[in-house]
Design brief:
The structure is a homodimer. The first copy, chain A, is α/β, with parallel strands linked by helices. Chain A is built from 12 helices and 8 strands.
């Protein structure tokens, strides 16, 4: 999905909602718990009930790897399902990979070819040579961790370098030249509203993937005020608040309703030029 | 495998060799290339011919994920094979994971329970709360990236913080208190011999996992001189130089021979107290 197609979908759906399919088996409805395909069956229903509202789905690989080979199969199956049924929705693998260059090439192949997602999250710790192999896939999105929503962000990401710049800013500055806004996004947590202003100044045009609204305490209004640009430029992720809204047999309806409510809030916050 | 058992194995085998099973399908011998189980079949033979010399095997997840669900299955199968046939060899999943705490718990479950490896590599970028869930597994090893062997290490890992300390040192200092030397190791590339001296001063007792000897230009002798302690304290990884020593049908014999040669060099470099 291109930058322009993504902006178009945001305008059409009046939404910049990314639904996080963090399908933790222990939180699934009781009637699915013991099914060997529980993750996929759960995802399928959640996807169908939220697809009218979501412009992106984000699958965190941890919840699938925790189920072993069968979990990896359900991750792949979910990606294929979204791509077939809802081809206008961006599919993000939230895998936070990062390794030296030949190895990075294999991760790129794993996610961009074998699994065929649109976008992949990466950890920048090992430096820019661990990122460049992904940017060779011009039609795919590389999403780099900058400032994450967890409290541990203060340990290293927010540490000041000798030049006075916090590490996450150095990450943005060194990486933003690696690819155009059409193939590069950054993760910035909603729990850092002040830093979001700074990131938007550094990256006026790029999309930001924003976790941390809801359960982690970030405010949607503040994220919009500090981070939105003329093309929206934001994908706000919500996971548990949507997918685990209800854990009865009606979980999918509840997820759809919650996604719809988020979209209604988002609709009112989008630039008129996009939704006009 | 405990700290003491690892030191004992090093003494018995007169080796601190970690064999990296970076089983890139495109580099496998021609007769295996098209076999659906190629990675596992290749690994099995390499393992049997090198097990007398290796104290650890390291499986980089990228090469398996690049093959999709079938690749993940072969990764698991390889781990099970080593644990059954060679229970005194440490099995490391080189996955470089890192995520917020509830997600990190699922990665810990994926690797320490589902796949049942002894050790897992982690990226520290997101901070200490992304590392602690792994350290709850007291009988497992958590291996944190500090200073990696690639040239991109200069982008962030070697950057000086405002207090004059390079980032990788801050990573070591903040993380080394999270667990004892019995469950925590750090990755330090052989391509940084001077920094290895500094790391050993910061961590007199911990094991270091050292990539970068051989193809990447690091010297075994320099690593030993700068990084060895009384318990050895080093696992030196070699991948391609061993597993792809020969790509004919005799690949496993060649791998065994190369591992034996490395071990002979290592034997001469170990403290007398260990091999006595």
């Amino acid at each position: 999905m291109t930058y322009n197609q993504l902006v178009e979908q945001i305008g059409l759906k009046r939404s910049f909602l990314c639904v996080g399919l963090d399908s933790d088996r222990s939180l699934l409805p009781a009637h699915l718990q013991l099914h060997p395909q529980a993750l996929f069956l759960f995802n399928k229903e959640v996807i169908d009930s939220t697809a009218a509202y979501a412009v992106a789905y984000k699958l965190n690989t941890a919840f699938y790897e925790a189920e072993g080979t069968n979990g990896w199969a359900q991750l792949s199956q979910t990606v294929s399902y979204i791509r077939e049924r809802h081809p206008n929705i961006l599919v993000i693998a939230d895998a936070k990979r990062g390794d030296i260059s030949n190895t990075a090439k294999h991760y790129a192949r794993a996610f961009f070819e074998e699994m065929n997602v649109d976008a992949l999250t990466l950890s920048p710790y090992m430096g820019t040579d661990s990122l460049t192999p992904f940017l060779e896939y011009k039609e795919k999105w590389t999403i780099i961790l900058a400032l994450t929503s967890n409290s541990g962000a203060s340990d290293f990401e927010l540490q000041l370098l000798a030049n006075g710049q916090p590490l996450y800013e150095a990450v943005i500055q060194k990486s933003c030249t690696l690819g155009a806004k059409e193939q590069l996004m950054f993760v910035v947590g909603a729990t850092h509203p002040q830093q979001l202003v700074r990131v938007r100044a550094l990256l006026p045009e790029h999309f930001l993937l924003v976790p941390g609204v809801g359960a982690q305490g970030g405010s949607l209004e503040e994220v919009v005020q500090n981070g939105m640009n003329d093309s929206c430029g934001l994908l706000v992720n919500m996971s548990r608040g949507i997918i685990f809204a209800d854990n009865s047999r009606h979980f999918a309806d509840a997820a759809g309703l919650r996604a719809k409510e988020m979209t209604q809030k988002m609709s009112a916050l989008l630039p008129q030029s996009l939704v006009g």
